[in-house]
Design a protein that fits this description.
Strand content: 25-35%
Strand order of the largest sheet: 3-5-4-12-9-11-10-6
Order of helices and strands: EEHHEHEHEHHHEEEEHEEHE
Number of strands: 12
Radius of gyration: 20 Å
Number of helices: 9
Shape: globular
Distance between the termini: 26 Å
Length: about 325
Amino acid sequence: GGLIWRRRRNVTMKTTMKTMVTGRGAVPRCGARGRTRSALHHLRVRAASKEAAPSSQAANTLPMMPSDRYVAMNRFRVQDRAEADAKFEKRWAERPSRLATMDGFRWFALFRRINLDGTDLTEEQNEDFNYTSMTLWQDQPTFQVWREGDAFKEAHGGGNIKGILDMLISSAQTLKGKPKLLLANAYATQSLEVSESDLLKMAGGWRSVVADGKRVLDPECFMCAVDYVVEPGREAAFLQEASASISESRGAGGFRFGTVLNADAGKGADADVFTLSTVWDTKEQWEASRAGEAELGEARKTETRFFEGKLVLTTQKGA
């Protein structure tokens, strides 16, 4: 499973060994639902890796590539009721923000999880994070400057009592529980540049979009996010495979950017989960390429999720 896109909960498993508890989480190391069955398998794989064949040792000596972006994601569980999604999107469309004017900013979208066949999310899916705001920064220091500055306060209630109360009231009307922040390192990022004529309309560093709170906003992009479990010592080889996959996708129509995300949490429980994310103009263009479906070396693919993006912000550099 993956940590990035999923809500974490504890699931007890009865095994022939000790009872063990595994977590599940929600983006860029992504969601871990479905990990109950795979966790024991993962332990077996790790046990077997102690007797790895010499042919696998060469890959373990590859240098780990440096991260090339820093990604901040807030993940939300929007209530499963009429117009809750539309009201939530309206709140985002009307928030005061000058995000796109900040040094180091590269790309933003508010992602809504969808099923590829167009059906509604299941009750189980709605219990996970069904919306994620995703911001790509040039590096961690530029993200930190924004997080500690006035622009961050303005976008999160304005730093005054009225703004904070308005935000709390709006959240209570649309959300189930509090949002959860996840920070991730991004690797092997490849993006197309954006012509000035293709930049979406902005006002003061934020999108100029009319939202009525009754209908969800039209999608402006599509993302496919695929979780992989990578054995310790195999990270560099996996990232090389993923980079080659993104390079191949780059030539397909509608491709915007691709990257590999791994949660910035040190050697935590999900440090072995990497998410290959590719962003496209439309779902149909991704379907024509089916990017991200190939196996990547010895990494174990665990789950694929799909999202439509709203309120896209970028610069001419792209992501």
